[in-house]
Amino acid sequence: MKSWIRFRLAHGRIGFGVLENHRVTEYEGDMFGDAVPSANVLSVDDVTLLNPCVPTKVVALWNNFRALSEKLGKVAPSHPLFLIKPSTSVIGPGEPIQRPQTYAGKIAYEGELAIVIGKRCRNVPVDEANDYIFGYTCINDVTAAELLNEDPNFAQWCRSKGFDTFSCIGPAIQRDFDWRNAHVVTRLDNVERQNYSLSDMIFSPAEQVSRISHDMTLLPGDVIAIGTSIGIGSIKDGSTVEVSIEGIGVLSNTLSSGA
Amino acid sequence: MKSWIRFRLAHGRIGFGVLENHRVTEYEGDMFGDAVPSANVLSVDDVTLLNPCVPTKVVALWNNFRALSEKLGKVAPSHPLFLIKPSTSVIGPGEPIQRPQTYAGKIAYEGELAIVIGKRCRNVPVDEANDYIFGYTCINDVTAAELLNEDPNFAQWCRSKGFDTFSCIGPAIQRDFDWRNAHVVTRLDNVERQNYSLSDMIFSPAEQVSRISHDMTLLPGDVIAIGTSIGIGSIKDGSTVEVSIEGIGVLSNTLSSGA
């Protein structure tokens, strides 16, 4: 399996490259542009994995899986329903999810597939949309669940999902990924809580990229969190959430009670 | 009046500096850091004004003025209610607002004061929050109004307000601005449609910056659109919206039927 990662070396320098069989080939240039392999080959044990891309925004979908939509008694949407999570919400594999200083309530995990955009993208037809997808990674779309409906007049999607560390992405970006035959598995402290087929999604990745590119310009490295299905639940302080998708990898993050 | 602008010269180079009495003193370095005046002094007639900052996100408040809140019959919120508009939605003074390719419905203007963040800002107490405000500018927070409630289960705030060109900001950033004694005036094709006192706001700028900095890290250049009051309405294709705030300036943008 060959996938793209970003990493930090022991002395602090940040790089990116291709991971294959525990060996990292560092690249130079732009991951989404003129990337060329360098002579630098490392063991994956000598680097710390970072979020594999640096999005300017995370577009997070709601109600994009039939099983969850039916369970909630909602009709399937006619257009992707989304909120925007800020760049400051993004962390990588192994980094702690931090409980907000002012929030003592329930924090929920949502294991999801994430699309990584590879090229600037505006008003793209659906049959060209796959050309704008660089690859796929895992995301844990974290939510401060009790804030969502705190105000009776305004659902606080951006606030409840926008906190620093609430978009965990990684561990790597897989370019050749067949989502139709893959499952998302989420484990909370090693107990399986979600296991759903990506084939159940309402808007396919190409449909999402096309539709959302008619709503806003998507930039290289931007992430679409394609929505979750049944089995979401809350994370206790100190608990670890693993989102795994065969063909991509395992994304693991622990909720810190923080400072 | 002395204020900060970004501009483009005739040959395409982009700069920033201080505008005073039609004279622009170009600065070097970082507007929010080590900015130092250069020897380059220009006439404002020789530059094209751009959006005065380049936000990574626009945090846009809903229900932050008592008059509008009462008119809508809503209770005042206990925390700022906001959505996030992407960086790609931002344009400057004089740039056309573009009708989305796939949307033929009503497009609404909202004249507002905007806060420009000057320093990275997280968990800031209210009595220190003014130190993180670089200054103030005008914003027209544009909305594709008919999309907002298109889906019965999910208010599409980010979609209806997140289109490219839907955050018009400028013309300049005023550092010394007394919001307590200022009005926001919005004119549609030279007819006054909004004229409201900023003293009617529910959460003050310092309260907004403090509260929102507990929800996410704010970065230099980020913008908070502090919410609008009564008098919002729709813009016909070809119509011009002017948002003016005494002590800051006049922001003018025309709705183009686009391509």
Short description:
Chains A, B: It comes from Paraburkholderia madseniana. The first copy, chain A, is mainly beta and 259 residues long. Chain A has helices at residues 66-71, 157-161, 205-213, and strands spanning 2-9, 14-20, 23-28, 36-43, 47-50, 57-62, 81-86, 90-91, 97-98, 107-109, 111-117, 133-141, 143-144, 167-174, 183-188, 191-197, 223-225, 233-234, 240-245, 249-256.
What's the CATH topology name of the largest domain in chain A?
Fumarylacetoacetate hydrolase, domain 2
Strand order of the largest sheet of chain A: 7-6-17-11-12-14-8
Largest beta-sheet characterization of chain A: 7 strands, mixed
Overall mean confidence score, pLDDT of chain A: 97
- Rg from Cα of chain A: 18 Å
Keywords (chains A, B): Hydrolase, Metal-binding
Domain Fumarylacetoacetase-like C-terminal (chains A, B): 57-255
Domain Rv2993c-like N-terminal (chains A, B): 4-52
Pfam family, one (chains A, B): Rv2993c-like_N
